[in-house]
Design goal:
Blueprint: E1 2-11, H1 17-30, E2 33-43, H2 54-67, E3 71-74, H3 80-90, E4 93-96, H4 97-108, H5 112-126, H6 130-135, H7 158-188, E5 193-198, H8 204-214, E6 236-240, E7 248-252, H9 262-267, H10 269-276, E8 280-286, H11 292-305, E9 313-318, E10 334-336, H12 345-357, E11 360-367, H13 372-380, E12 384-389, E13 394-401, H14 402-407, E14 412-414
Parallel strand pairs: 1-2, 1-3, 3-4, 5-7, 5-8, 8-9, 9-10
Antiparallel strand pairs: 6-7, 11-13, 11-14, 12-13
The structure holds guanosine-5'-triphosphate and magnesium ion.
Length: 415
């Protein structure tokens, strides 16, 4: 087991700082690293040279002499020159949060696609850093951060690494084509696609299992679930058939975390499209985690980054079996459940059904000028695709549910 000291910079008294350090510890544990100590520093901006201040570097040196760790881990992504400077000053392996996350992904990847995606992200991360690492301590590097398919990456020069990236992208492309084709077929059947999304370890795969249990034709192939970070990296889609409710396709895929490396989001684009192209999202929240609020924010930010922030969402507050009091009240878009204890799964399925029924169709309306209130309600719902003032009124193209189409049928000019 490797031993490490972790270092965090608390920029501008960030209220989430402490939790992100705890999370860093958990990421390290997932890489089988033992944490010996942690140091933190309050600062307004990171130092360009060492990320932390020079005084802290000295303090860190003393701790390194005391504990003799194998490596030090920083809570943020370091620049190539910061890694170089730190490795030279500390004479020890220096890695960052991104390396840990990439390492865990490398450990979990099972399918060819996931392996290629992780390797691509690792290579992209390495590319600007390879020179610095060669210069300092490359010969001593082993263990975390040098795991996975790119084992000899330090011996490769930039050019070879670039060639590798090109090749990985090409290999991925053909797999992605197959996936896109499958998704297109799925879409053409008109069965709504519902995607599970949420923070890692929130219970997405457990919920997938619970819903499959309700399905009238469920088979044995359940999604993998486990109490660990990033248990699920691959995508699984199952048809859910229900007796009295509409059928739908349910997709389980990778969870999110704070400071998710951008390289990883890029590399996992094709997997994340399963989310961004869904008709409805089920945002699973671990309400027993005291940071669930900031986890919701993190997930929302990633959804925005992958252009999935316009899809209707049901907020599913999970693991209520672990808490005594519910911190908030349910709304028409949220529900409290326990996926593990199968509490309120039936209610959730009804809510999903309601949302699916609201699924919208594109139509064109001519609204008389005195119907400005209808126009503004469409605007509020962000359902307007295009609008134009004409002699008799405003011509608009909107996305409407079956119910709304009925409600406004007198204004419809084109279906
Ligand atoms: N007590 C309790 N535990 C739950 C509940 N739902 C899930 N869990 C546990 O939470 C852990 C994570 O569950 P997963 O379903 O693997 O979580 P996930 O969101 O798929 O995680 P990733 O695939 O890593 O993103 C497992 O140990 C589950 O048993 C629940 O309702 N109550
Ligand atoms: Mg999972």
């Amino acid at each position: 087991m490797e031993k490490a000291i972790i270092i965090g910079l608390n920029l501008n008294n960030n209220p989430e700082f402490h939790d992100s350090m705890v999370e860093l510890e958990n990421l390290a544990k997932a890489c089988h690293i033992k944490i010996q100590d942690k140091i933190t520093q309050n600062k307004d901006t990171p130092s360009i040279k060492y990320y932390i201040g020079e005084g802290k570097v000295e303090e860190l040196k003393d701790l390194i002499n005391l504990y003799e760790p194998d490596l030090v881990i920083f809570n943020d992504e370091l620049s190539p020159s910061q890694i170089r400077n730190l490795e030279e000053a500390l004479e020890i392996k220096v890695i960052d949060r991104t390396v840990l996350i990439l390492d865990i992904f490398a450990r979990r990847a099972k399918t060819t696609e996931a392996k290629l995606q992780v390797e691509l992200a690792q290579s992209e991360y390495m590319l600007p850093r390879i020179i610095g690492m060669n210069k300092s301590l490359s010969r001593q590097r082993s263990g975390t951060g040098s795991k996975g398919p790119g084992e000899q990456k330090l011996e490769l020069n930039r050019r070879l690494l670039r060639n590798k990236i090109t090749k990985l992208k090409k290999d991925l492309k053909s797999i992605v084509e197959i996936r896109r084709h499958q998704r297109k077929n799925r879409k053409s059947t008109n069965i709504p696609i519902v995607a599970l999304t949420g923070y890692t370890n929130s219970g997405k795969s457990t919920l997938m299992n619970a819903i499959i249990d309700y399905s009238t034709h469920h088979d044995e192939s359940y999604a993998f679930r486990k109490n660990m970070l990033f248990a699920t990296l691959e995508t699984k889609t199952k048809k859910i058939t229900l007796d009295n409710l509409k059928n739908f396709l349910l997709t389980d895929t990778v969870g999110f975390i704070k400071k998710l490396p951008h390289n990883l989001i890029e590399a996992f684009k094709s997997t994340l499209e399963e989310i961004s192209e869904a008709d409805l999202l089920i945002h699973v929240i671990d309400v027993s985690n005291k940071n669930y609020d900031s986890q919701i924010k993190t997930v929302k930010n990633v959804l925005k980054e992958i252009n999935a922030d316009n899809i209707p969402v049901i907020y599913v507050y999970n693991k209520i079996d672990l808490i005594d009091n519910l911190p908030i009240v349910e709304t028409e878009n949220s529900i409290f459940i326990s996926a593990e204890k199968q509490i309120n799964i039936d209610k959730l399925l009804e809510l999903i059904n309601i949302k699916i029924e609201q699924k919208s169709t594109e139509i064109e309306l001519l609204l008389p000028f005195d119907k400005g209130d209808i126009y503004s309600s469409f605007k509020d719902n962000k359902s307007i695709i295009f609008s134009k003032y004409e002699n008799k009124g405003i011509r608009i193209r909107v996305k409407l549910s079956e119910k709304e189409i009925n409600q406004y049928k007198e204004f419809i000019i084109k279906k």
